[in-house]
Queue: 4 jobs
Job 1
Amino acid sequence: MTTTGFVNNIAKITLSTPYAVGDVNAYLIKGDVLTLVDAGPLTDTAWSQLTVALASLGYSADDIEQIVLTHHHPDHAGMLQRFSDSVKIIGHKYNQYWINRDELFHRDYDRFFYRLGSESGLPQAYLSAIPKFKSPLKYMGNRSLDDAVKEGDILPGMPGWKVIETLGHAQSHLSFYRESDGVMIAGDHILVHISPNPIIEPPFEGGTERTKPLLQYNDSLKKLMNIPISYAYTGHGKEVDDVHALIPKRLAKQEERAGSVLGMLQGKQQTVFDICKRLFPSVYQKELGLTLSETIGQLDYLESIGSIRKEKQNNVYYYYA
């Protein structure tokens, strides 16, 4: 656990997580109300670290009046239930499905991924592992969203902080921008050392069409090029002081990855699972959900620019160059 003092009313608090991504950053912000942006995973270690960090800043958990979420992933939203019921939880409306999981959530989640897995060419042995996709949620508490915010809104109790929708890494992902000095709290949308995995999620609000998160992520990156960002606080790792220089690097890296996938498809029709095994030979079995998301993202991108096509045979999609 580390924390910085307040700089322009923002204090960074770094908490441990049980995930491979490592530590996560939360931010305490002084405004009309005391706000915590993101809350860490539901572990005793993270709660202890947060308590100590708040004390070093002169506060306790009871002083926090609202928690604003960049997105619903458990390393960012897991610890919500540890806070008093008087603390308001604010974020994108899609957070609700994940932070207040009910029977409908589990039914729709499993149904969606069984279908996606079948269409991706997963053998039966792998389809039976689909419920394990939810295993990271063991560190996610259960709490309702109190207020939903959307693109262009000003955050409640935080004058000058504007909501920017940055979908891709998650369907609930928001970034928060302070126009007075160009500071952004970017969550996992912008990270220094890695490009976030755009994760496929079920469409909980009706319909059966899945989103295409990598295409969303690229569009969300490009959107930031038109915003005068001076400094970005990130969900993991260090801050970014030149967002506009980093974005073209991320997009170029994406094209490079897609080029590798295109090469794999030359001369042979293949399923998502075929490509996934070649892209991630050492980890696809352990991280099947994440590697499938990444693979499908690359195929979505190549399809969107007309480099590949797909056809359905016996309920399985086959891709070809």
Note: The mean pLDDT is 95.
Job 2
Amino acid sequence: MPIRTNRGRTAVYRRLWGWPLRSPRHLIGTLVVLAVLVTTVGIVLPKAVGRPPTGLSAPRPTTSTSFAPRPGLGTATAPATPPTSSLPTRLSTTPTPMSAVPNQDAIRVAKQWAAAWVNHPAGVTNAQWLEGMRPYTTEEYLTAVLSTVDPANVPATKVTGEPSIGTSYTASMQLVIPTDGPKVSITVVSTNEGWRVADYDQAS
């Protein structure tokens, strides 16, 4: 009897293992059943022993770490308010010049300068011509502009009339003087040395 029982069990096992190999459909069905069993065991078994399923990690506890600020780098607080100054605000505009009665010294200097400007006989050098205007001209204008002029190119030889006032302020004046050439517009300014010519151009 024991021998028959063992043979019977062996025959049953052979039938079970041989069933998947009988056809491709049996084999695919067997593999699907095995995959479901393995997945179920992988999920149920860890829950039974108190562990998370395979492939899933337990959430890490979050901790807040604070760092002391490095000297000179500051913190994440609001930026400090810049210091205020009690100094008065500088004016970005220049004051408007004040009109004034024409200054007689300014008119005299303009006439003397014009007389020296038209005085350029043949053969006069630039240095000689400049010396005639030096007492009536600012040093900056004499050096920067008039020193580059050839006296032979001055288009006038004499003054032909009295100056007419264009604008008159407390520290400057603009006059127009006629010559035997073009009219000359002359700007005279008040300096520490007195009134001096600071610019000239052909009048329109």
Note: The first strand starts at residue 164 and ends at 168.
Job 3
Amino acid sequence: MNISILGAGRVGATLAAALAAKGHAITIGHRDPAAGASQWKGPSVRHASLADAVAASPLVINATPGDTALPMLQALQTPLQGKVLLDVSNATERTANGMPGGLLYPNSSLAEHLQAALPQTRVVKSLNTMIFTVMAAPQSLSSSPTVFVSGDDADAKSQVKALLADLGWPAGQVLDLGGIQSARATEAMILMVPYLIAARGFKPFALTVA
């Protein structure tokens, strides 16, 4: 299928490479498409503006920083109408050392704010409880990780679960937590990351239910 990914950093590049390898037609959305295309070192993909990328595909992945995602996606409300929006980001305060700070939306979540701001878009939250390398390689860890799914629309979640299967996630490791409100729980898990890194070093990780 046609899939658009907003953002070409480590997360976006990892997902683009994995999904392109499965035969999906990938469009990468950039703020500056020409600059983004010239710096791209991944597989053969189409490069476009953010709005053009959204318009190109029925399923859009937000791989941009969570602290700026809401206003950026609000500006794309019209092209996002009728689309499935898979949000894989976490919205935290920026810190001097680059580690996640406090939650930007305490007692709520970025996913809930996105769904409220984009009522004609079907928002699904997933892949936000792991380091980017694990998103497309769950088998790379010594223990089986869990990937969580949150969203109000059953069909949209089914599409995301099919995408997760293409990324290598067995059905038994996919846990549907229910409505979009459940995303506040998975987004809050980002608060563990600085402490995990301090305790174990900067290694691939994901959270699981055992």
Note: The mean pLDDT is 96.
Job 4
Amino acid sequence: MKSKYISESITSNFIDQVKEYAIFAMDANGIIETWNEGAQRMKGYTAEDVIGKYYGMLFTDEDRAQHKPEQELEEAKHQEQFMAEGWRQKKDGSLFWANITLTPIYSEEKQLIGLTKVTKDLTDKRLAEEELTRKHNELTLTNRDLDNFIYTASHDLKAPILNIDGLVQRLTYLFEQKGIQDQELEKLVGYIQKSVNRFKSTIEDLTTISRLKRTLDEEGKEEQVVVQTVFDDILADVMFLSKEFELPCQIKSNFEVKTLYFSRKNFRSILYNLLSNSIKYRSQTNPCQIEVKTFREDDWVVLAVKDNGLGISQKDQKNLFTMFKRFHDHVDGSGIGLYIVKRIVDNAGGHIKLTSKVGEGTEFKVYFPVKGA
């Protein structure tokens, strides 16, 4: 008996000293029988305020009108443990977001004799989540407005830029017809033409980004993609690009994973951008060599593209997937290829790993989640 008394005393003192949780016991009908200090601190009621009263007094007026306390009590009686979250009311009428656990108590004869209830105040967590949701919704709306602006601006700017382009070409034609030869004028016309071309390229890039955003917002059509087929389709384009240099690139492939479930159009865009970058940023001293392969790694299908090109410095790697960011000016490029790759991969639940060293080359590994048809 002494041992049992000591055990009960320790348990009682422990519960009373737990101040982060409201802990109380009630009979099978929901009448409160015990009330610890944590409950008083959290809810504002003293033990005298609540003992002998129905625990429904702790719910909001709306919940009581909908008989939530009775429903909760009945559900808890038929479970080993009942857990829920919701608004609860303090003595002063203020509300807090509560995480509650109800546990039935049985006698040695397996008869239900009461329940214990443990409550934790999660108001700060709830408010933080609501604030995060609010900011997410605001960001979504801002992105949508930005996307609409990009689409409208790129569309509305096309006509005047084409007009300027046409006027410059007409001016060049008139110079030639009238035999006007003026080196300064020719330079100025050349500068104007270059500026127009850059403007046209930027508009095209903005259109591509806007189109990508709209495509990602929609349900992408996923299908069984045959890697070799897509690779062969791309090869003709990239080899044509390779021929612009003195020596074409040697591109080797090894596809251990022959198919994956993905959007064919998006997979082609990823592989094309990675291959074309390897060719564009090839070494200017070493013969260009590129290796493309696929393989399984845990729950991922990995597409790896490795080259022996210029490489990327540690500093530049931090901004590699940023829109319009370029690190080499000796070849044409817009700086949106890798941005597009990253957006597609992130949207599909994958990720990208990069290994690169200046003067030795770069390897991109794209991780696709394993999916079944």
Note: The longest strand covers residues 95-106.
